[in-house]
Amino acid sequence: MLKMTSHTPQILVVDDNKEICNILKEFLEKADYRVHTAYSGEEALHIIENNVIDIVISDLRMPGIDGIQLIKHIKAFDPTIDVVMLTGYPSIDTAVESVKLGAYDYLTKPIDFRRLKVMLEKLLEQRALKKRISLLEKKFSGDYVFEGMVGQSLAMLNIFATIKHVAKYPISILITGETGTGKEMVARAIHNLSRRANKPFITVNCAGLVETLLESELFGHVKGAFTGALRDKPGLFEIADQGTIFLDEIGDMPLSLQSKLLRVLEHHEIQRVGDVKVKKVDVRVIAATNRDLKKMVEEGKYRKDLFYRLNVVHIHIPPLRERKEDIPILCQYFIKQLNQEIGKGIKGLDIQVSELFQQLPWDGNIRELKNVLERAYIMATGEHITLKDLPLEYRQRKLDKISFADLPVQTTLAEMEKKYIMKVLKLTSGNRSQAARILGVSRRSLYRKLKKYGLI
């Protein structure tokens, strides 16, 4: 499973000859592709509409919708799907016609599996190259805002492209990333761009409730199911019917509830707590976690079948420290929002703050950056946010990076101390009380040092 924006390449094999389908399926699965099979053009279209298919390998001559008609339908639905045609020698001319209609290439029967392997590898390389070119074009277009998310790094542009692509398919999606990276925003973007956009989008924090309450919240309960159940109550899966449910912190879901979630994903049905009746639901499930579910599966802490049901498409959001080129435009975006809300007219960050922001680890990711900027915006008195506007702990981090490498070797300790005091005073905008706290001395001691070095 590729991280960030992709999935294992999915291939659909279409042939009315089941034996050929099965032979191709076995060959392709050994090459680590995810394979679907269809025995007619009609069945193929249903699979395409409900799955993220990358490549279709289709027989040319089939009853009903034949290969030529299938290409036309596929290209009308999603032009990015590549098609490889299978043909017997008598229909080479028709195979050539299929290429003119948009097929990538064709293979003659009996199938040369070595040629097929090389063809698919070349095709996937070309698809990756096209995607990278598209991302680079977007990167240099200056369009960095997508569904409320901001980014100019290739990692984020790749995520935006994947969201746009997978949103139309009614599949489960797993979003991973550290706290504060914006997993819920990705989920909302997928919902907003899907056919379910006008239906409910419901968020559930699986770590926020004890097991019994979480079960009742998700699946509902009937009157008398437990103490306090005074009336029937629909669960969130029922309320989200026709829409999307976002299960945040899915790694914290108890094992006992994982089987009930698996039932929803496999059979599209739920059972309220205390009820014998089963209800059908049509809900898209998007799950998110900052934990390593694959490792949890290996340790027996998470159901393997559920993991694979959720992990149809995996979107990994990298931490902010791994995409620091996004920090300047995130700052511009947040300051623009604050100017609209508060109206102070701040133009941006001064050079020292910009440099500091590039050096910080941002363990809280975008959420931390936004909080720091909001505080600094309120404190700012000029046109730009300066170091003095930042919370004290961030100014102290700037002090940690003060270098004495530019001082001559013969510099005395007294001269180094003087330089350090001057730096601290500059960072605190001359506030001696703050400077004394940072230096770890009393205000009186600092006063004596200032007098000693001729700084007052």
UniProtKB/TrEMBL annotation:
<dbReference type="Pfam" id="PF00072">
    <property type="entry name" value="Response_reg"/>
</dbReference>
<dbReference type="Pfam" id="PF02954">
    <property type="entry name" value="HTH_8"/>
</dbReference>
<feature type="domain" description="Response regulatory">
    <location>
        <begin position="10"/>
        <end position="124"/>
    </location>
</feature>
<dbReference type="InterPro" id="IPR025662">
    <property type="entry name" value="Sigma_54_int_dom_ATP-bd_1"/>
</dbReference>
<dbReference type="InterPro" id="IPR009057">
    <property type="entry name" value="Homeodomain-like_sf"/>
</dbReference>
<keyword id="KW-0067">ATP-binding</keyword>
<dbReference type="InterPro" id="IPR001789">
    <property type="entry name" value="Sig_transdc_resp-reg_receiver"/>
</dbReference>
<dbReference type="GO" id="GO:0000160">
    <property type="term" value="P:phosphorelay signal transduction system"/>
</dbReference>
<protein>
    <submittedName>
        <fullName>Sigma-54-dependent Fis family transcriptional regulator</fullName>
    </submittedName>
</protein>
<dbReference type="Pfam" id="PF25601">
    <property type="entry name" value="AAA_lid_14"/>
</dbReference>
<keyword id="KW-0547">Nucleotide-binding</keyword>
<dbReference type="Pfam" id="PF00158">
    <property type="entry name" value="Sigma54_activat"/>
</dbReference>
<keyword id="KW-0902">Two-component regulatory system</keyword>
<dbReference type="InterPro" id="IPR002078">
    <property type="entry name" value="Sigma_54_int"/>
</dbReference>
<keyword id="KW-0804">Transcription</keyword>
<feature type="modified residue" description="4-aspartylphosphate">
    <location>
        <position position="59"/>
    </location>
</feature>
<dbReference type="GO" id="GO:0005524">
    <property type="term" value="F:ATP binding"/>
</dbReference>
<dbReference type="InterPro" id="IPR002197">
    <property type="entry name" value="HTH_Fis"/>
</dbReference>
<dbReference type="GO" id="GO:0006355">
    <property type="term" value="P:regulation of DNA-templated transcription"/>
</dbReference>
<dbReference type="InterPro" id="IPR027417">
    <property type="entry name" value="P-loop_NTPase"/>
</dbReference>
<keyword id="KW-0597">Phosphoprotein</keyword>
<dbReference type="InterPro" id="IPR003593">
    <property type="entry name" value="AAA+_ATPase"/>
</dbReference>
<feature type="domain" description="Sigma-54 factor interaction">
    <location>
        <begin position="149"/>
        <end position="378"/>
    </location>
</feature>
<dbReference type="GO" id="GO:0043565">
    <property type="term" value="F:sequence-specific DNA binding"/>
</dbReference>
<dbReference type="InterPro" id="IPR058031">
    <property type="entry name" value="AAA_lid_NorR"/>
</dbReference>
<keyword id="KW-0805">Transcription regulation</keyword>
<dbReference type="InterPro" id="IPR011006">
    <property type="entry name" value="CheY-like_superfamily"/>
</dbReference>
